[in-house]
């Protein structure tokens, strides 16, 4: 909690039974965990739950007054029906069987809290045997109560607890513990909590103090919960912003080799020999990267761009600038397929330009002899550019003089892994760093998770590339499915190639089954290839090389082809069961076609039913190819905690209140304040960051 945490044991503050219940329900053992169990909404004084509007079977808690009591005697079965008017103006019936004691306390005119499962009969809301707590006048210690509400008696008079509150918190509850019971525990903790000192060296303008925010989020005054909610969101944003500001400050302490552009070098030679002009965006990005490389401060830059926007050629030109200065470059990629392809394409591009720069691939599955030779060439300085997977990070890999690190598809790697590679620089020098992604990042995520990086953005596509057409193919429309297969055949007959992507290797709908089906039944006259993650490295390389040469008509693959694979002649893709993939993943897959000058098509097959969330998500991807628009859609449909690498449920939540889609002003303000604080009082900033939950720290370190 930004420099403060109530570390008291729950068992020291709450009744033993209540402390045990909170541990059983949520795993909580300390007071700070309960204080961070924030209300999910609030009920205003005089406002109840509209029972007519709740879903059948929902468990609700409401306050009502008994208008009349109906008794039905059926011999052995005596039924008591209490007709209750709730505070929303609605009415419901609470029914109890063989419970005469209830009638003695729930008399006509009695005001009580009811909590139970709601059903409806002939339009009338009903509860059977709901828990209740009678709200008696002040001065009475114990109120008649049953079930989960009985526990509220543990916290003294409800008139003290509720008082004249205008806002009643409604907490995320469970089958084991109700919202009211949680409210009682929070009230007891706050009653025994001394005033909390302000952890910051300033009071955020327009916000309550930290002490007020903690108390008022659980018990808002007449002004409502907006003020304390804003302050606590700000605290969460500031914690993340301080972590990034400290990382930026640390980066300024490091030295990097100065790698200025050399006019007569390999960089210039390749630039002048390219068969196509760089786009305006590429030129701008190259200028930024080139300028960063020429400085003695390590570059830390994120290059984000649409699928196919030409990031790789920018990276290659930047690497040649480093090579011109006698330094080696490392390009870290997520898959062996991509490592092999990048090594081939970079070598091909350099050879076409008559460049003397050398490239080698390094992967974990390389034959021992080939790997030994590659390692020897790297450490002796005979190789200029090394393209590799996680194998690059291993201790056995030593560079002669590493000056520049490029990380492709940064979301597959973390800061920890990037730093491991950067630690392989010569002497005290820290290599420059360029990380690239084809998954556009919403600006709020860029400010939090990537706040330590300068950001460059490529939006335009190189000339000659045509937009990819997309279409939905529901399994429920057999004619559409048949047409999709026909469309693939048409492209093959026109001399093009196709991908069929499956969500799994084995089982129904897997690549093994699909490959057999296509080769033996649908396309027996065509060449159908197979690619998945269980193949050996050399097998994957052989398949991709064959596909690139045009020897395979239809490639059935898993998502190993998701990033970086570049076959200009592939013009159609069918993604099977596309509802099983995320928005960004579908966008990445679609980017494997449309890489030449031909019209291209991506077909999203789905088993999802129209109107379902999954169907709508895939429809949205098919409707637009704008990666930045899809990035916001992805963020809107995912929980913010998932974006930050955490779960949004229970104790695992790290960012509990901050909405990364809507709270840009708060995040922007926190980033500005964090930068000022690190410059003004670094020691305080470090103390505040030390309090970020371990999961958040680990994520920021690894991502």
UniProtKB/TrEMBL annotation:
SUPFAM superfamilies in UniProt: Nucleic acid-binding proteins, P-loop containing nucleoside triphosphate hydrolases
Domain Helicase C-terminal intervals: 487-636
Gene Ontology MF terms: ATP binding; DNA binding; DNA helicase activity; hydrolase activity
Single Gene Ontology BP annotation: DNA repair
CDD domains: DEXHc_RecG (cd17992), RecG_wedge_OBF (cd04488)
Domain Helicase ATP-binding residues, every copy: 292-458
Record key words, sorted: ATP-binding, DNA damage, DNA repair, DNA-binding, Helicase, Hydrolase, Nucleotide-binding
Protein name: ATP-dependent DNA helicase
The organism of origin for this protein: Corynebacterium doosanense CAU 212 = DSM 45436
């Amino acid at each position: 909690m930004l420099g403060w945490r109530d570390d008291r044991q729950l068992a020291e503050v709450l009744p033993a039974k209540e402390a045990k219940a909170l541990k059983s329900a949520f795993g909580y053992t300390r007071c700070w965990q309960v204080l961070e169990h924030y209300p999910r909404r609030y009920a205003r004084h005089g406002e109840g739950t509209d029972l007519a509007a709740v879903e059948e079977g929902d468990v609700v808690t409401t306050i009502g007054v008994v208008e009349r009591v109906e008794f039905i005697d059926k011999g052995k079965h005596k039924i008591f029906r209490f007709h209750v008017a709730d505070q929303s103006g609605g009415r419901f019936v609470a029914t109890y069987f063989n419970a005469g004691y209830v009638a003695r306390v729930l008399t006509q005119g009695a005001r009580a809290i009811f909590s139970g499962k709601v059903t409806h009969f002939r339009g009338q809301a009903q509860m059977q045997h709901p828990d209740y707590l009678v709200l008696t006048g002040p001065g009475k210690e114990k109120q008649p109560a049953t079930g989960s509400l009985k526990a509220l008696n543990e916290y003294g008079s409800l008139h003290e607890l509720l008082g004249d509150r205008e806002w009643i918190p409604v907490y995320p509850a469970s089958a084991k513990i109700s919202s009211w019971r949680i409210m009682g525990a929070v009230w007891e903790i706050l009653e025994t909590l001394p005033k909390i000192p302000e952890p910051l060296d300033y009071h955020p303008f327009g916000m309550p103090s930290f002490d007020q925010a903690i108390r008022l989020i659980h018990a808002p005054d007449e002004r409502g919960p907006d003020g304390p909610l804003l302050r606590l969101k700000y605290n969460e944003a500031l914690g993340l912003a301080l972590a990034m500001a400290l990382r930026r400050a640390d980066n300024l302490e490091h030295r990097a080799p100065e790698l200025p552009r050399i006019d007569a070098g390999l960089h210039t030679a390749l630039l002048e020999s390219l068969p196509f002009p760089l786009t305006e965006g590429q030129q701008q990005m190259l200028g930024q990267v080139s300028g960063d490389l020429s400085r003695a401060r390590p570059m830390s830059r994120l290059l984000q761009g649409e699928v196919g926007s030409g990031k790789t050629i920018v990276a290659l030109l930047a690497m040649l600038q480093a090579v011109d200065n006698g330094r080696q470059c490392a390009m870290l990629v997520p898959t062996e397929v991509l490592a092999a392809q990048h090594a081939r394409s970079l070598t091909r591009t350099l050879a076409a330009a008559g460049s003397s720069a050398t490239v080698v691939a390094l992967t974990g599955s390389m034959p021992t002899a080939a790997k030994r030779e590659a390692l020897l060439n790297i450490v002796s300085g005979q190789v200029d550019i090394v393209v590799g997977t996680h194998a690059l990070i291993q201790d056995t890999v030593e560079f002669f003089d590493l000056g520049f690190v490029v990380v492709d598809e940064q979301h597959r790697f973390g800061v920890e892994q990037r730093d491991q590679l950067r630690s392989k620089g010569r002497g005290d020098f820290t290599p420059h760093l360029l990380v690239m992604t084809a998954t556009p990042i919403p600006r709020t995520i860029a400010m939090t998770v990537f706040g330590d990086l300068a950001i460059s953005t490529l939006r335009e596509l190189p000339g000659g590339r045509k937009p990819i057409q997309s279409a939905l193919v529901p399994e429920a429309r057999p004619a559409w499915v048949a047409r999709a297969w026909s469309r693939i055949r048409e492209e093959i007959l026109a001399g093009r190639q196709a991908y069929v992507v499956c969500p799994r290797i084995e089982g129904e709908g897997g690549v093994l089954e699909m490959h057999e089906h296509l080769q033996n039944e649908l396309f027996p006259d065509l060449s159908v290839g197979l690619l998945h993650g269980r193949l050996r490295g050399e097998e994957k390389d052989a398949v991709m090389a064959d596909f690139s040469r045009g020897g395979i008509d239809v490639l059935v693959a898993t998502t190993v082809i998701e990033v970086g694979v570049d076959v200009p002649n592939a013009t159609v893709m069918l993604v099977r069961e596309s509802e099983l993939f995320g928005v960004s993943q579908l966008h990445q897959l679609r980017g494997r076609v449309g890489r030449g000058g031909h019209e291209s098509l991506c077909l999203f097959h789905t088993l999802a039913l129209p109107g379902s969330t999954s169907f709508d998500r895939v429809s949205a991807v098919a409707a637009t190819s704008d990666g930045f628009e899809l990035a916001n859609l992805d963020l809107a449909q995912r929980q913010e905690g998932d974006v930050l690498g955490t779960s949004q449920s229970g104790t695992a939540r790290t960012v509990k209140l901050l909405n990364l889609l809507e709270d840009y002003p708060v995040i922007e303000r926190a980033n500005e304040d964090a930068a000022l604080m690190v410059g003004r009082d670094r020691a305080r900033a470090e103390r505040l960051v030390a309090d970020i939950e371990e999961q958040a720290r680990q994520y920021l370190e690894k991502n």
